C-alpha cells in the first residue's frame, strides 16, 4: 500500500466471471489487464453472496496464470474433472490485494491510502479467484466492484 497523491479522482470498475458453470468445490479464475497508466485501488465490494461464492481473492500479477477467459486455478484442489483449462493463479509475482468471504461488508481503505497498480509497478493484471462450494446450473457472473484513482 502507498499514500496517494491528494488530486486523484475516484472511478469505479468491475471484474466479473463471464458466465461460468462451476462445479462444486472448484476454484475458478478470470483476469483483467490493466492500462499502462498508474492507478491506486482504494475500495472493494463483492458482487456475490455467501450462497453464490464461498470466498473471493483478488491477486495483483505481473502475468496471469492463463490467457484463457477463465481457468481452473485450484492448485491445491485435486478435482481433475473440470472442463476448463488448469493453470496457476498468476504466471509470476502474485500479490493478494483483497479477500472476501461470508457476506463480509465492502472495504474502503482510509483516505489517502491505496494499492499501486499499472504504470511502472509489477502489477499489470488483476486476477480474481472464486471458490465455489456448489455446482451452478445457471451462468455465474460473481465479481468485485473496485474503486480506484
UniProtKB/TrEMBL annotation:
<dbReference type="GO" id="GO:0005507">
    <property type="term" value="F:copper ion binding"/>
</dbReference>
<protein>
    <recommendedName>
        <fullName>peptidylglycine monooxygenase</fullName>
        <ecNumber>1.14.17.3</ecNumber>
    </recommendedName>
</protein>
<dbReference type="GO" id="GO:0004504">
    <property type="term" value="F:peptidylglycine monooxygenase activity"/>
</dbReference>
<dbReference type="InterPro" id="IPR000323">
    <property type="entry name" value="Cu2_ascorb_mOase_N"/>
</dbReference>
<keyword id="KW-0186">Copper</keyword>
<keyword id="KW-0325">Glycoprotein</keyword>
<dbReference type="GO" id="GO:0005576">
    <property type="term" value="C:extracellular region"/>
</dbReference>
<dbReference type="InterPro" id="IPR036939">
    <property type="entry name" value="Cu2_ascorb_mOase_N_sf"/>
</dbReference>
<keyword id="KW-0503">Monooxygenase</keyword>
<keyword id="KW-1015">Disulfide bond</keyword>
<keyword id="KW-0560">Oxidoreductase</keyword>
<feature type="domain" description="Copper type II ascorbate-dependent monooxygenase N-terminal">
    <location>
        <begin position="15"/>
        <end position="137"/>
    </location>
</feature>
<keyword id="KW-0964">Secreted</keyword>
<dbReference type="InterPro" id="IPR008977">
    <property type="entry name" value="PHM/PNGase_F_dom_sf"/>
</dbReference>
<dbReference type="Pfam" id="PF01082">
    <property type="entry name" value="Cu2_monooxygen"/>
</dbReference>
<keyword id="KW-0479">Metal-binding</keyword>
<keyword id="KW-0732">Signal</keyword>
<comment type="similarity">
    <text>Belongs to the copper type II ascorbate-dependent monooxygenase family.</text>
</comment>
Amino acid at each position: 500500500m502507498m499514500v496517494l497523491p491528494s488530486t486523484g479522482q475516484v472511478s469505479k470498475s468491475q471484474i466479473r466471471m463471464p458466465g461460468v458453470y462451476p462445479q462444486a468445490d472448484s476454484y475458478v479464475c478470470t483476469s483483467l489487464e490493466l492500462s499502462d497508466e498508474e492507478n491506486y485501488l482504494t475500495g472493494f465490494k463483492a458482487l456475490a453472496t455467501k450462497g453464490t461464492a464461498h470466498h473471493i481473492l483478488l491477486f495483483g500479477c505481473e502475468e496471469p496464470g492463463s490467457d484463457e477467459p477463465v481457468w481452473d486455478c485450484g492448485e491445491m484442489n485435486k478435482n481433475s474433472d473440470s472442463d476448463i483449462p488448469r493453470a496457476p493463479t498468476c504466471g509470476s509475482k502474485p500479490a493478494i490485494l483483497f479477500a472476501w468471504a461470508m457476506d463480509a461488508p465492502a472495504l474502503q481503505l482510509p483516505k489517502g491510502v491505496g494499492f499501486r497498480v499499472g504504470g511502472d509497478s509489477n502489477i499489470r493484471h488483476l486476477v480474481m479467484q472464486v471458490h465455489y462450494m456448489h455446482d451452478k446450473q445457471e451462468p455465474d457472473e460473481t465479481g468485485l466492484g473496485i474503486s480506484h484513482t
